[in-house]
Amino acid sequence: MMSQNRKDDHIKYALEQRPGYNSFDEMELVHRSLPKYDLAEIDLSTHFAGRDWEFPFYINAMTGGSQKGGQINEKLAQVAESCGLLFVTGSYSAALKNPSDPSYRVATGRPNLLLATNIGLDKPFQAAQQAVADLHPLFLQVHVNLMQELLMPEGEREFRSWRQHLTDYSQRLDLPLILKEVGFGMDRSTVEEARSLGIQTFDISGRGGTSFAYIENQRGGNRDYLNDWGQSTLQSLLVLQPLRDEVELLASGGVRHPLDMVKALVLGAKAVGLSRTMLDLVENHSAEEVIDIVEGWKSDLHLIMCALSCRNLQELKSVPYLLYGRLKEAHEQIK
């Protein structure tokens, strides 16, 4: 059974985890020496989940359901509103068990905050309906975390209902849905099946950032050999290239800076989510300092796109690139 302490465990071990293999380091973009555009002409806008967004990156779901989680959410919301970024709260499940929990209600007093929330696919339609009624999010992010649940002593053990829940969400909820992995990557068969159930937008959230297998093993599990389970973020994006114009792909998992963001956008992502990177920032800097860093990211995205001679995200999808190492080997084996 979920406890508030588990939420704090997740924050603790996410911050302690040392970075490992990151597929973004095995992709190189091809520079253009004769640019077509002035820097001021570069357009960062994107579109997914039924609306336009000014910037192609967002603060992805992390936490909530504890005092520490609430403090982090308040700071993230302050950054998001100031920078005009989308902010997705962590799983709303804890608030369903404790309706007085304030850690998710960060929109109070922030009329300009672009807010979405998250819930696990193990929850039935009524739970998702309650989350939407409570927070009025711009969309509902539905996470699938199979390996995490299997490694948690208190995790789910019954999964047959997940497909029916997804069908119910798709047919009965009157707002956009995003199906999200939690760092294990998403394969083509998953995307195709979920699409057949009515889902159009996917956050493939691959390996390379926070590992919930590692976190659950730190919480007392003894299956460290599964810490690196799953497919990397760019490997998942590469596998999904044939579908990139048929569904909306979002990328998260190991995104550290604007160059990583652009690499994901080149592979067809509509936008890029940041979790661990933002968690590190708000843990170690004031909100004002984080706002300055994020504003700098916007400027850096402009200059990288200018160096690639791309005016907008659509043109980025035609940028040539090189793959190396494990990423190249994986791409050659799984088409």
TrEMBL record:
Purpose: Involved in the biosynthesis of isoprenoids. Catalyzes the 1,3-allylic rearrangement of the homoallylic substrate isopentenyl (IPP) to its allylic isomer, dimethylallyl diphosphate (DMAPP).
SUPFAM superfamilies: FMN-linked oxidoreductases
Domain of life from the UniProt record: Bacteria
Protein name: Isopentenyl-diphosphate delta-isomerase
Keyword Cytoplasm found: yes
Alphabetical list of CDD domains matching this protein: IDI-2_FMN
Binding site for Mg(2+): 149
One GO-annotated biological process of the protein: isoprenoid biosynthetic process
Family designation: Belongs to the IPP isomerase type 2 family.
Cellular localization per UniProt: Cytoplasm
Positions annotated to bind substrate: 6-7, 148
Reactions listed under catalytic activity: isopentenyl diphosphate = dimethylallyl diphosphate
Listed cofactors: Mg(2+); FMN; NADPH
E.C. no: 5.3.3.2
Residues of the FMN-dependent dehydrogenase domain: 161-317
Binding-site residues for FMN, renumbered to this chain: 61-63, 91, 118, 180, 205, 210, 254-256, 275-276
Presence of keyword Protein biosynthesis: no
Keywords: Cytoplasm, Flavoprotein, FMN, Isomerase, Isoprene biosynthesis, Magnesium, Metal-binding, NADP
Annotated GO CC locations: cytoplasm
Main location (coarse class): cytoplasm
HAMAP family in alphabetical order: Idi_2 (MF_00354)
GO terms of molecular function: FMN binding; isopentenyl-diphosphate delta-isomerase activity; magnesium ion binding; NADPH binding; oxidoreductase activity
Pfam family, one: FMN_dh
Quaternary data: Homooctamer. Dimer of tetramers.
